[in-house]
Amino acid sequence: MHLAASTQDSDGSVIRSLVLPTFGTMPPVAIEPSHIRAWVARLAGDGDSPSTVRRAHTLVQMALELAVEEGRIPRSPCRRISLPKIEHEEKRFLSASQVADLADAIRPRYRVMVLTGAYTGLRPGELMALRIDRLDILRRQLRVEEPLKTPSSRRTVSFPPFLAEELAEHLATYPGNDGRLFTAPAGGPLNPATWRRRYWYPGVDASVGRPVGSSGSPSSDGHQTDNGWSPSMSETAKSPANTRDFEKWS
User: Fold this and answer.
1) Residue 146: what pLDDT?
2) pLDDT digits 0-9 by tens, 185-238
């Protein structure tokens, strides 16, 4: 299935990790509503958040509607597809000890990534884009340059002494191969959807647990944040010293 070239760059990881593995080799005429329903159910069962599943479905729907307009298929198979609901919960803050438990529960390669997010207020996308040359361990500062939601997102952030030691040890253990501070196990940039499914959710489940949604069951979406792709990662330590920075995750 061909996806329009005008698709936003920010959707690239969703297309590569969630759409193309299932529909990449299927011609539009071969896609049935049953395929779409089974795919949506599988994504939800794999732990992808409702917002991510809905976005992936929207991208497929856009491509198939284009195929309809071009006369390649009579109608879109994305009609009347039941999608997971996005539940909204109250903001949740973790204590410093809960942050430590979560960091210790996640894969060791990403332990310091969790700590950095908690004690700097960086969003997940900012953490994944953070480059080593924008980290000053001696001055205990890092520079956020991308991705920028607004011009004011470009900023310098300070961090506590213990985190400087953790970051230095992380660099010694995982030096990286492309200039990024936090990379995929084989090197290169992290895929947000894959990272969340393979590492983040298992770490949350094994430590602090997922927030409970309005339905009374654990929410795969954690709680909603302004970064849009990793709501659960907005849970963070609430400390008198850095409460304002920590609340950026909520």
Assistant:
1) 82
2) 988 899 888 898 899 989 999 998 876 554 444 444 433 333 322 333 444 444
Contact 188, 177 (CB under 8 A): yes
How many residues make up the chain in this entry?
Answer: 250
Q: What is the DSSP letter of 74?
A: S
Mean pLDDT for 150-170 is 91
Q: Which residues pair with 218 in a beta bridge?
A: 212
Can you tell me the distance from the alpha carbon of 36 to that of 30, in angstroms, rounded to the nearest whole number?
11
The parent domain of residue 27 ranges over 9-69
Kindly state the tokens that stand for 168. Answer: 């230095």
Backbone angles phi, psi at 156, to 5 degrees: -110, 130
Is residue 4 a part of any domain in this protein? no
Q: What is the pLDDT of residue 90?
A: 59
Read off the pLDDT of residues 32-47 as tens digits, 9 standing for 90 and up: 999 999 999 999 888 8
| Contact of 204 with 232, CB cutoff 8 Å | yes
Residue 24: C-alpha distances to residues 20, 73, 76, 83 (Å): 4, 17, 17, 21
Q: How far apart, in whole angstroms, are the C-alpha atoms of residue 116 and residue 172?
A: 16
Orientation angle between helical segments 33-45 and 50-69, nearest 10 degrees:
160
Q: Element (H or E) spanning 66, and its range?
A: helix 50-69
- What total number of domains does the chain contain? 2
For residue 212, the domain's CATH number is 1.10.443.10
How confident is the model at residue 131, as a pLDDT?
94
In the chain, the amino acid numbered 125 is G
